[in-house]
């Protein structure tokens, strides 16, 4: 019944979310219940066990913590000050607005995994700027929609948490995946910067006028503390990976160091840093800060319920045997590594087109992991390969929400964006995943 459970989960989620226009969180809860019903007389016990397991997972806490972190970071204006610094550096380049848009999406991606939120946050600032600098409406909207996937291609994100919670991922630690995905995500960012370079030349885009730019000195004077946000990432990584971690292990023991969870401490530290860095901003705009928190509070329900339901559904599908069944199906094909990577990559992209990356991970994460591990991939590398493919969620026409959000902000025609999105963002991510899986693009995997 495992494969049947997978089909039911995907079908119910797609029908509820796409056809009936219900929220993804509501769709996943209904899909969870529908999936559990396949357990027959054991359905109540399976559902209870899955719900209990999802509630106990540190992944559930981490997902909620990252939502709160993202709200605080954006409410305090820290990201805006960081983008101003980037703008003062890259704005003088040809296509500077597009470079800042890309790097801004990466910055947002490091603190929030929502593709729609990424495109809305970055696009609201950079799309008008890009159009003023000479970019066409379709080109500006395509770049913002294509970059929205950086929220999944860069750690941390809820999709990463779901895959980490799968039994098939027991050979990978949160720390190793965090660092390895950062390497894979860096390739994705560098590729997008190369796309901007190409488009700047083909579209004959000029540099941003000086009157629209702050000087680097002024930007640093106003936001010199904003880069401190990266300490929230660097500190937990240093404590758990590398020579410092080795020293602490020798002094405190392996279990003590292992208990330091990157996915728990990163949102806590970044939230504290943002509150300290933005303390003056909060004092001067206390009412605005409260309003912003209230407006964004619904994200807790959306992300929290979605993550919880997806984790629980994944546990039920795993108990029904979806992993072994799909793995057996893929194994029966006797595919070599290079072809298996393509099959899994295309499957992940196709499923992520109607579903969110979170739902995709819950639906095919276990069998995809098992299939890639079976052809010799390290579990950490397998997770990175899958995440890069599911990161196309926002750029996959015709369903991706960021496509229509970006098009609305740019006054662009969405169908004109479909082919460029596939050519410049969807297919290259499959290729990038394949190159990493084949070992031709190195990433650091902590042992």
UniProtKB/TrEMBL annotation:
Membrane topology: Multi-pass membrane protein
Location in the cell: Cell inner membrane
GO cellular component terms, semicolon-separated: plasma membrane
Main location: membrane
TRAP C4-dicarboxylate transport system permease DctM subunit domain ranges (all copies): 4-436
Swiss-Prot/TrEMBL keywords: Cell inner membrane, Cell membrane, Membrane, Transmembrane, Transmembrane helix
Protein name, as recorded: TRAP transporter large permease subunit
């Amino acid at each position: 019944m495992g494969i049947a459970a997978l089909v039911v989960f995907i079908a119910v989620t797609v029908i509820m979310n796409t056809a009936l226009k219900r929220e993804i969180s509501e769709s996943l809860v209904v899909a969870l219940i529908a999936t559990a019903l396949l357990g027959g007389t054991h359905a109540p016990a399976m559902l209870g066990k899955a719900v209990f397991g999802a509630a106990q997972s540190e992944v559930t806490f981490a997902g909620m913590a990252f939502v709160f972190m993202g709200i605080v970071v954006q409410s305090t204006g820290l990201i805006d000050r960081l983008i101003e610094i980037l703008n003062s550096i890259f704005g003088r380049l040809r296509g500077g607005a597009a470079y800042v848009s890309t790097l801004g999406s990466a910055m947002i991606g490091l603190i929030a995994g929502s593709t729609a939120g990424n495109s809305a946050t970055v696009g609201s600032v950079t799309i008008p700027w890009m159009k003023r600098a000479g970019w066409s409406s379709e080109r500006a909207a395509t770049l913002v929609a294509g970059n929205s996937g950086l929220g999944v291609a860069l750690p941390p994100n809820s999709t990463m948490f779901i895959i980490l919670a799968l039994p098939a991922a027991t050979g990978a630690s949160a720390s190793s995946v965090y660092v390895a995905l950062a390497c894979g995500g860096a390739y994705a960012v560098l590729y997008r910067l190369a796309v901007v370079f190409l488009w700047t030349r083909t579209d004959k885009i000029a540099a941003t006028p000086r009157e629209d730019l702050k000087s680097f000195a002024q930007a640093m004077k106003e936001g010199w503390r904003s880069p401190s946000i990266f300490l929230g990432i660097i500190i937990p990584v240093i404590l758990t990976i590398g020579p410092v971690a080795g020293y602490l292990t020798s002094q405190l023991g392996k279990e003590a160091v292992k208990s330091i969870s990157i996915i728990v401490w990163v949102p806590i530290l970044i939230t504290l840093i943002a509150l300290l860095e933005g303390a003056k901003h909060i004092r001067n705009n206390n009412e605005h800060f409260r309003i912003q928190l209230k407006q964004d509070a619904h994200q807790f329900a959306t992300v929290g319920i979605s993550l919880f339901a997806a984790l629980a559904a994944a546990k039920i599908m795993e108990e029904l045997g979806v992993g072994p069944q799909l793995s057996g199906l893929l194994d029966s094909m006797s595919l070599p590594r290079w072809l298996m990577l393509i099959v899994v990559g295309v499957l992940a992209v196709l499923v992520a087109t109607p579903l969110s990356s979170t739902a995709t991970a819950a639906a095919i994460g276990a069998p995809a992991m098992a299939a890639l591990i079976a052809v010799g991939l390290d579990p950490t590398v397998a997770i990175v390969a899958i995440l890069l493919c599911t990161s196309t969620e926002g750029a996959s026409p015709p369903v991706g929400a960021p496509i229509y959000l970006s098009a609305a902000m740019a006054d662009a025609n969405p169908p004109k964006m479909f082919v460029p999105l596939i050519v410049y963002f969807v297919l290259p991510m499959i290729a990038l995943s394949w190159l990493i899986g084949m070992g031709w693009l190195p990433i650091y995997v902590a042992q």
